[in-house]
Amino acid sequence: MGLEFFKMKGPLVIAPILRERFPLWFVFLGPVLFLGAYRLGLIFWDCPFHHLTGLQCPGCGMTRAACWLVRGDVDVAVSYHPFVLLIAAAWLFFAVAAFLPKGARGRLADFVARMERRFWVVPILGTAFFAYGLARLGYEVYLLLWR
């Protein structure tokens, strides 16, 4: 394997979304509508993973964290899920990009594509997100079995 692995280019995930307005609006409005419906009590289902196992999935607590973040209580939001600030920053980035003219969005997409290829942004952050979730899951299992 050697050094070839380190010369590989990262996958493009964010840049293609930035190029077209419809996916941007979906990424921008989707969470707004979801949180609004959640706060109004229109969404009341349980996490399927939590419902089946009684354990938390990697994203458990993210909706509650986002609601607390919208209220301005960062400490409580982070206590529900520490990745809420990163997700909120990504949402804000996409929200701003949704309102940019096509030329500016294209230049931004080109810049982001270079960063994604070079720094593997999405795979690294995705791995960190799921590693946190697995660590939390492991801790829950530990508490259930040995406490």
Care to describe what's here?
With 147 residues, the protein is mainly α. The protein has one domain (12-146). The protein is 76% helix and 0% strand. It has 9 helices and no strands. The chain has helices at 4-7, 14-19, 21-39, 48-53, 62-71, 74-80, 84-98, 102-119, 121-146. α3 (21-39) crosses α7 (84-98) and α5 packs antiparallel against α6 (74-80). The longest helix is centred in the last third of the chain and has 26 residues, at 121-146. The protein is globular, with a radius of gyration of 18 Å. The protein starts with a helix and ends with a helix.
Gyration radius (Cα, Å) is 18 Å
> Spans with pLDDT under 50 lasting ≥5 residues?
none
Q: Tally the structural domains.
A: 1
Percent in helix = over 70%
> What general form does the structure show?
globular
The succession of helices and strands, N to C, reads: HHHHHHHHH
Tell me the β content.
under 5%
List the total number of helices: 9
How is the biggest beta sheet arranged? none
**Extended strand count:** 0
Short description:
With 147 residues, the chain is mostly helical. Helix content is 76%, strand content 0%.
